From TrEMBL:
PROSITE patterns: CYTOCHROME_P450. Belongs to the cytochrome P450 family. The keyword RNA-binding does not apply. The keyword ATP-binding does not apply. It comes from the Eukaryota. Its cofactor is heme. It is a single-pass membrane protein. Pfam families: p450. One of its GO terms (cellular component) is membrane. This is Cytochrome P450. One of its GO terms (molecular function) is monooxygenase activity. Heme binds at C429.
Amino acid sequence: MITVIILLVLTIFLFHRFRTRLSSSAAKNLPPGALGVPFIGQSLSLLGAMRTNTAEKWLQKRVDKYGPVSKMTLFGKPTVFIHGAAANKAVVFSGEEGTVSNRQVESLKMILGKRNLTELSGEDHKRVRGALVWFLRPQTLRSYVGKMDGEVRRHLNMYWHGNNEVTVAPLMKTLTFDIICSLLFGIEEGTTRKSIIECFKTMVDGIWSIPINLPFTRYNHSLKASAKAQQILKQLLKDKAKVMEEEKESEVEENDKDLISYLLRIKNKDKEQALSEEEIVHNIILLMIAGHDTTSILLTLMLRVLATNPTVYAAVLQEHEEIGRSKERGEALTWEDVSKMKYTWRVAMETLRLYPPVFGGFRVALKDIQLGAYTIPKGWQIFWAAPMTHLDETIFGDPQKFEPSRFDQNQTPIPPFSFIAFGGGPRICPGYEFAKLETLVTIHYLITQFTWNLSCSQDFLTRDPTLMPNKGLPIQIFPKS
């Protein structure tokens, strides 16, 4: 009874707040579409479509009905949905400075932390992104290849060899999380790593949710897990800072073996470029979730693609066997070996085109924005969705066909801001090259050490909120001699 009363009072409060906000926009030429029930609007309908992996069809119906710009209510706020490469460029990824800001849905902001990169704009965004990009430059990644090679081999020996069947998705999550913890953050196996992974599993569940903080909601559970993860990471920063102080490192750049050490060093040495403790923690969480979730999904779906496309599988295998023949038995991969895996990366890109792990994202209008005949009012959310251009037949001919040659440099270039699995323009993912390296090294050892068949006949994809096979992709595996 008390819960019902709380919900009723909350609904009345939000209705009045919502109506006030709308009245200030009434005189503007708003895009077509219904806002629906205050605060909730189309949120539940969209989340339902995502769970059945029909969200792009759900949005396409809106495009067919209202055109490429329409209004709705998502996750508590009035929202304008935009569709098309031109809109992606003009509003989402390369908009005029001071026009749009990074601001995700309330649930994502509160779970990841208010100072994570997806929330920052202007000079703060440049400063934080610059620090991450500098550390993840090719010079750093070159030194990671050998250690990443060892992590992948250790994982396969522990979880794959000796088994006749495995479930791919949870194993890929384990692998990618171990890699990012070990290489980027210097968190080795132990209780800290186990505690963080448990927190992250709960955090991801509530990233896209209606932000009502009641005890029985996903949002509430995710907030608690986020608070626990942040406390663990803050203690980790203190421990690492103490070690750095005791060692009194002189050759600092050479001793920045992980991202946390690097960020702590610039915090102490370069006040203009320094990240606060809050920014370091929140962006560690962002990178961990991205590394744990998106790359693991890509690897899972690539194995699914290779199991169902014999021609593609044969071409990928040939590329990796040629690299293998140039190596001594047991010799680790090098940066030069990875640079030869061009066809494999085209397969990865085509997998991302058809099955983007992250469905879309949000911005916020900092002032009234004119988009064609319509006005996006100041303070409204702007929602974009990757599949809407990825599956546009005017951009990608026969869009449902799996065709890696679309990403061949000798083919007609893909129009800018059409393929946005990693974002675009100044907002392209700073971990892009790390994810690429991780994917290619993993596929090399999987395809040279195993063949596999899908075990599940009722295999379908669902988004909750990221994309995943419903059963986690169980496969039969057959080790090669």
